[in-house]
Write a structure and sequence with these properties.
By secondary structure, the protein is an alpha/beta fold. The protein folds into two domains: 146 residues, HAD superfamily/HAD-like (Rossmann fold, 3-Layer(aba) Sandwich); 81 residues. Helix content is 42%, strand content 15%. The chain contains ten helices and eleven strands. Strands 1-11-10-9-2-7-8 form a seven-stranded mixed beta sheet, sandwiched between helices. It has a two-stranded antiparallel sheet with strand order 3-6. A two-stranded antiparallel ribbon has the order 4-5.
Length: 283
Amino acid sequence: MERQNPKNMRERTPETTRGEETEEEQIIEEETLEEPHPLLEERLTLRKPLGILFDLGDTLLTYLKFDPEAGHAATLNIANNPLGYTVADIDNQIKRLNRDLIPRREKAQVEFHPHIIQRHVYEALHITFDRTPEEVERVFWRAAMSWQPEPGIEYVLEILRDKNIPMGIVSNAAFCGNTLMWEIEQQGIADYFRFLMSSADYWVRKPHPLLLETAAAKLGFKPADIWYVGNSPQYDIAAAHNAGMGAVWYNRLDAPLDGPDPHVEIKSWREFLELVEGFYLKL
C-alpha cells in the first residue's frame, strides 16, 4: 500500500467537479481534504518506481557558468589556424548558425551533433586540428563549463542505490554523452547510474518521447513504472508525460510553471527521498 505524499510537496491533480454536490457534501469533502487519512489519500497517479531517470543540468548538477569565449580560446590554442581567425570570428560564426538552426531544432525536436557543428564552423574558417573531434569538444567543455552537484543529491543517490533502484540520466545537450559522462565522473556521481544518454547522440531531444522510451528499454521496465525527474516543465515534464512516465518536477528555485503540470513538484532532494520512501514503505 502506498503512503500519502508528504504535506510539504505540491501535488498537481485535476480539481474535483463540484457542480452537483449538496452543501453538506461539500463541507464533508472540505473537512476530508483538510485532515487526510495517512493511508487512504490516493490522489497521486504515480506508481512505485521500479527505475528512475534524471535530467542532468540543474537537476543532478548545478549549472554555474558557461563561458563560450574561454572555450573558443582554448580550442584555438590547439588549432592549426593559418588565416589567424580570432575568438570573435568563431563566436560570430556560431551565432550565425544558431540564429538559423535553433528555431528549426526546437520546432522539430531534433538535436544537432556537436561534431557536425564543428565542421561547419572550423572548416569554413580553414581551421584544423591534430586531435579527434571528441578531444576538441572536451577541450572546449573544460574551459567553458563549470558545475557542482545539486545540494543533497549524493546522499539521495546513495539511498536509491541501497534500495536497488536502477537509475539513468537523459539530457538535452549539444555535447556528446562521453563528454557529459566525463563531467559526472569529475563530480563523483557516475557510479550511481547504469547509463547516460545525451540527445546529441540520439538525434531527438525532449520533449520528444523517443529519448525516454529508449531509456526505459535500457532500464528494462515499462515507462509507467519509471519516474523521470527534471527541472524543466517545458522539456522534462512534457517528455515524461509524452512517454507515459511519472513526472517529478525538481523546482528548488521555486520557478513559475512554464509547461504541463507534473505529477509531483518537489523543492529539495530531501522531499524527493520522502516521496520515494513513501512508496517503498512496508506496512
